[in-house]
Write a structure and sequence with these properties.
By secondary structure, this protein is an alpha+beta fold. The chain folds into two domains: 4-117, Alpha-Beta Plaits (2-Layer Sandwich), CATH 3.30.70; 130-181, no CATH class. Helix content is 13%, strand content 29%. It contains two helices and nine strands. The chain has helices at 16-28, 73-82, and strands spanning 4-11, 44-45, 62-69, 92-96, 104-109, 112-117, 145-147, 150-156, 165-171. The strands form two sheets. The protein has a six-stranded antiparallel beta sheet with strand order 2-3-1-4-5-6, with helices on one face. Strand 4 (92-96) and strand 5 form a beta hairpin. The longest helix is centred in the first third of the chain and has 13 residues, at 16-28. It is globular and about 45 Å long.
Length: 181
């Protein structure tokens, strides 16, 4: 049986050698969480010119991603924190462990890898728990209504004349809402 952690790492382009070294370490040396052995996966660049994202332009960021299996996440985060990043303030690490419904965001600040979202580092909202208004806070946004762990809102369209509206589901962990514009 597998235990998968989705990982994305955003870096400054000057740190490409570091993220490549991280990927090699994950492939060959990273300890596993619950069994002997080494190596849990690797990272691939997802923002190169040969990748497909929505929109008419290529992404203007350097992002790497991988699905790690049985990774010892504390060891992975410790390793990332100890690497000699050239632009440490640009480093962002997104992790979504098996059965979690959201990514956790960590960033290097003052030589320490800190979790910035969700705000409570030990928050344990799992998808195995039914997502109801009791497990996710009820949120009202511009007349929106809660549907599962998302908020349905009606927003003005960014590309059409004022007055036209659309309904869209916006993921809302703890009521977080992004603008569609």
């Amino acid at each position: 049986m597998s235990w998968v952690t989705n990982v994305m790492v955003s870096i400054d382009s000057n740190d490409r050698p570091n993220v490549e070294a991280l990927s090699d370490w994950l492939r060959t040396e990273a300890p596993l969480r619950d069994r002997p052995g080494r190596g849990c996966g690797f990272l691939c660049e997802i923002t190169g010119e040969d990748t497909a994202w929505g929109g008419w332009k290529y992404p203007e960021c350097d992002m790497w991603a991988g699905a790690l299996n049985h990774a010892d996440l504390n060891a992975v985060l410790d390793h990332i924190a100890q690497m000699p990043w050239r632009c440490p303030n640009a480093l962002q690490v997104f992790m979504m462990d098996q059965e979690e419904a959201f990514f956790r965001l960590s960033m290097l600040r003052d030589g320490e890898l800190r979790q910035y979202a969700p705000v409570t580092p030990d928050e344990e909202t799992r998808t195995s728990v039914p997502m109801t208004s009791e497990t996710w806070p009820r949120v009202t946004v511009g007349g929106g209504r809660v549907r599962g762990h998302c908020v349905e809102v009606t927003t003005p369209r960014c590309d059409e004349a004022a007055g036209s509206e659309r309904s869209e589901l916006i993921a809302g962990a703890n009521g977080g809402v992004r603008s569609p514009c």
